[in-house]
Protein backbone atom coordinates (compact mmCIF):
# COMPACT_ATOMS: atom_id res chain seq x y z
CA UNK A 1 0.00 0.00 0.00
CA UNK A 2 3.07 2.21 0.31
CA UNK A 3 3.03 3.30 -3.32
CA UNK A 4 -0.66 2.79 -4.16
CA UNK A 5 -2.13 5.76 -2.31
CA UNK A 6 0.64 8.27 -3.15
CA UNK A 7 0.48 7.28 -6.83
CA UNK A 8 -3.30 7.61 -6.81
CA UNK A 9 -3.20 11.04 -5.17
CA UNK A 10 -0.40 12.32 -7.39
CA UNK A 11 -2.27 11.24 -10.52
CA UNK A 12 -5.50 12.71 -9.19
CA UNK A 13 -3.77 16.05 -8.62
CA UNK A 14 -1.66 16.09 -11.78
CA UNK A 15 -4.11 14.77 -14.38
CA UNK A 16 -6.75 17.53 -14.43
CA UNK A 17 -4.25 20.11 -15.62
CA UNK A 18 -2.59 17.81 -18.16
CA UNK A 19 -3.49 17.64 -21.84
CA UNK A 20 -4.71 14.00 -21.87
CA UNK A 21 -7.75 14.92 -19.77
CA UNK A 22 -8.71 17.72 -22.17
CA UNK A 23 -8.21 15.40 -25.14
CA UNK A 24 -10.47 12.85 -23.45
CA UNK A 25 -13.18 15.50 -23.05
CA UNK A 26 -12.78 16.59 -26.68
CA UNK A 27 -12.99 13.03 -28.01
CA UNK A 28 -15.98 12.19 -25.80
CA UNK A 29 -17.85 15.08 -27.43
CA UNK A 30 -16.66 14.14 -30.91
CA UNK A 31 -17.75 10.52 -30.70
CA UNK A 32 -20.72 10.99 -28.38
CA UNK A 33 -19.65 7.92 -26.40
CA UNK A 34 -18.11 9.20 -23.17
CA UNK A 35 -17.89 5.82 -21.42
CA UNK A 36 -16.10 4.19 -24.35
CA UNK A 37 -13.70 7.12 -24.68
CA UNK A 38 -13.04 7.15 -20.92
CA UNK A 39 -12.34 3.41 -20.88
CA UNK A 40 -9.95 3.76 -23.82
CA UNK A 41 -8.21 6.70 -22.16
CA UNK A 42 -7.99 4.70 -18.93
CA UNK A 43 -6.39 1.79 -20.76
CA UNK A 44 -3.92 4.17 -22.39
CA UNK A 45 -2.98 5.55 -18.97
CA UNK A 46 -2.71 2.01 -17.62
CA UNK A 47 -0.26 0.98 -20.33
CA UNK A 48 1.77 4.15 -19.79
CA UNK A 49 1.83 3.61 -16.03
CA UNK A 50 2.88 0.01 -16.52
CA UNK A 51 5.78 1.08 -18.76
CA UNK A 52 6.83 3.73 -16.23
CA UNK A 53 6.68 1.15 -13.43
CA UNK A 54 8.77 -1.31 -15.44
CA UNK A 55 11.38 1.38 -16.02
CA UNK A 56 11.34 2.22 -12.31
CA UNK A 57 11.75 -1.47 -11.50
CA UNK A 58 14.82 -1.62 -13.72
CA UNK A 59 16.42 1.46 -12.17
CA UNK A 60 15.36 1.01 -8.54
CA UNK A 61 17.76 -1.76 -7.50
CA UNK A 62 20.75 0.31 -8.63
CA UNK A 63 19.82 3.18 -6.30
CA UNK A 64 20.39 3.58 -2.59
CA UNK A 65 17.32 4.37 -0.49
CA UNK A 66 18.47 8.00 -0.30
CA UNK A 67 18.84 8.15 -4.08
CA UNK A 68 15.36 6.65 -4.49
CA UNK A 69 13.94 9.38 -2.25
CA UNK A 70 15.90 12.01 -4.12
CA UNK A 71 14.50 10.72 -7.42
CA UNK A 72 10.99 11.14 -6.04
CA UNK A 73 11.87 14.64 -4.85
CA UNK A 74 13.18 15.54 -8.31
CA UNK A 75 9.99 14.15 -9.90
CA UNK A 76 7.84 16.24 -7.56
CA UNK A 77 9.81 19.44 -8.13
CA UNK A 78 9.78 18.84 -11.89
CA UNK A 79 6.02 18.25 -11.67
CA UNK A 80 5.66 21.54 -9.79
CA UNK A 81 7.62 23.43 -12.43
CA UNK A 82 5.80 21.92 -15.39
CA UNK A 83 2.49 22.43 -13.61
CA UNK A 84 2.80 26.21 -13.69
CA UNK A 85 3.84 26.31 -17.33
CA UNK A 86 0.82 26.80 -19.54
CA UNK A 87 0.65 23.99 -22.05
CA UNK A 88 -0.75 24.36 -25.51
CA UNK A 89 -4.00 22.69 -26.38
CA UNK A 90 -3.71 19.15 -27.66
CA UNK A 91 -4.46 18.31 -31.25
CA UNK A 92 -8.12 17.52 -31.69
CA UNK A 93 -7.10 14.48 -33.81
CA UNK A 94 -9.60 15.49 -36.49
CA UNK A 95 -7.75 13.47 -39.11
CA UNK A 96 -7.71 10.34 -36.99
CA UNK A 97 -10.60 8.14 -38.08
CA UNK A 98 -10.03 5.07 -35.93
CA UNK A 99 -13.33 5.22 -34.07
CA UNK A 100 -14.33 5.89 -30.47
CA UNK A 101 -12.10 3.19 -29.02
CA UNK A 102 -8.80 3.29 -30.92
CA UNK A 103 -8.57 7.08 -31.41
CA UNK A 104 -8.60 7.91 -27.68
CA UNK A 105 -6.50 4.86 -26.85
CA UNK A 106 -3.69 5.87 -29.20
CA UNK A 107 -4.14 9.63 -28.84
CA UNK A 108 -4.10 9.68 -25.04
CA UNK A 109 -1.25 7.17 -24.89
CA UNK A 110 0.95 9.29 -27.15
CA UNK A 111 -0.01 12.53 -25.44
CA UNK A 112 0.59 11.14 -21.93
CA UNK A 113 4.11 9.90 -22.69
CA UNK A 114 6.47 11.77 -20.41
CA UNK A 115 3.74 13.66 -18.53
CA UNK A 116 3.97 14.29 -14.78
CA UNK A 117 2.03 11.21 -13.77
CA UNK A 118 4.39 8.85 -15.55
CA UNK A 119 7.43 10.52 -13.98
CA UNK A 120 5.80 10.18 -10.56
CA UNK A 121 5.02 6.52 -11.25
CA UNK A 122 8.59 5.90 -12.38
CA UNK A 123 10.00 7.45 -9.20
CA UNK A 124 7.58 5.62 -6.89
CA UNK A 125 8.26 2.31 -8.67
CA UNK A 126 12.01 2.83 -8.28
CA UNK A 127 11.41 3.08 -4.53
CA UNK A 128 9.63 -0.27 -4.44
CA UNK A 129 6.18 -1.76 -5.04
CA UNK A 130 6.06 -0.96 -8.78
CA UNK A 131 2.76 -2.71 -9.40
CA UNK A 132 1.09 -0.71 -6.67
CA UNK A 133 2.55 2.49 -8.12
CA UNK A 134 1.23 1.62 -11.58
CA UNK A 135 -2.16 0.63 -10.19
CA UNK A 136 -2.52 3.78 -8.11
CA UNK A 137 -1.50 6.07 -10.97
CA UNK A 138 -3.85 4.29 -13.35
CA UNK A 139 -6.79 4.53 -10.96
CA UNK A 140 -6.19 8.25 -10.40
CA UNK A 141 -5.94 8.88 -14.14
CA UNK A 142 -9.07 6.81 -14.81
CA UNK A 143 -11.09 8.86 -12.32
CA UNK A 144 -10.03 12.07 -14.06
CA UNK A 145 -10.68 10.57 -17.52
CA UNK A 146 -14.22 9.58 -16.55
CA UNK A 147 -14.96 13.03 -15.17
CA UNK A 148 -13.51 14.70 -18.27
CA UNK A 149 -15.44 12.42 -20.64
CA UNK A 150 -18.67 12.91 -18.70
CA UNK A 151 -18.37 16.70 -18.62
CA UNK A 152 -17.24 17.03 -22.23
CA UNK A 153 -15.05 19.83 -23.52
CA UNK A 154 -17.33 22.73 -22.54
CA UNK A 155 -17.87 21.45 -19.01
CA UNK A 156 -14.22 20.52 -18.54
CA UNK A 157 -12.87 23.89 -19.66
CA UNK A 158 -15.29 25.69 -17.30
CA UNK A 159 -13.59 24.10 -14.29
CA UNK A 160 -10.99 26.25 -12.46
CA UNK A 161 -8.18 24.12 -13.85
CA UNK A 162 -5.59 26.90 -13.74
CA UNK A 163 -6.06 27.30 -9.97
CA UNK A 164 -6.06 23.55 -9.48
CA UNK A 165 -2.82 23.36 -11.45
CA UNK A 166 -1.25 26.08 -9.26
CA UNK A 167 -2.42 24.45 -6.02
CA UNK A 168 -1.16 21.03 -7.12
CA UNK A 169 2.16 22.55 -8.18
CA UNK A 170 2.56 24.17 -4.78
CA UNK A 171 1.86 20.85 -3.04
CA UNK A 172 4.31 19.05 -5.35
CA UNK A 173 6.98 21.68 -4.65
CA UNK A 174 6.57 21.50 -0.88
CA UNK A 175 6.56 17.69 -0.87
CA UNK A 176 9.56 17.60 -3.20
CA UNK A 177 11.56 19.96 -1.02
CA UNK A 178 10.72 18.08 2.18
CA UNK A 179 11.52 14.67 0.66
CA UNK A 180 14.68 16.04 -1.00
CA UNK A 181 15.97 17.57 2.22
CA UNK A 182 15.25 14.28 4.01
CA UNK A 183 17.09 12.33 1.31
CA UNK A 184 20.08 14.64 1.67
CA UNK A 185 19.80 14.28 5.46
CA UNK A 186 19.40 18.00 5.94
CA UNK A 187 16.35 17.62 8.18
CA UNK A 188 15.95 15.80 11.47
Automatic annotation (TrEMBL):
The keyword Membrane applies. The chain crosses the membrane at residues 35-58, 70-89, 101-124, 131-151, 163-184. Pfam families: GDT1 (PF01169). GO terms for molecular function: metal ion transmembrane transporter activity. It is a multi-pass membrane protein. GO terms for cellular component: membrane. It is found in: Membrane. Keywords: Membrane, Transmembrane, Transmembrane helix. Belongs to the GDT1 family. This is GDT1 family protein.
Amino acid sequence: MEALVPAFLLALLAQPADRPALLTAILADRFGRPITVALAAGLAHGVGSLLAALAGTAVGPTLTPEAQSLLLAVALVAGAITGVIRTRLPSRLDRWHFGPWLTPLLGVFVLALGEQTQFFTFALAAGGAPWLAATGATLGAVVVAFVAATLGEAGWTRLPLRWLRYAASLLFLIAGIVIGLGALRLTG
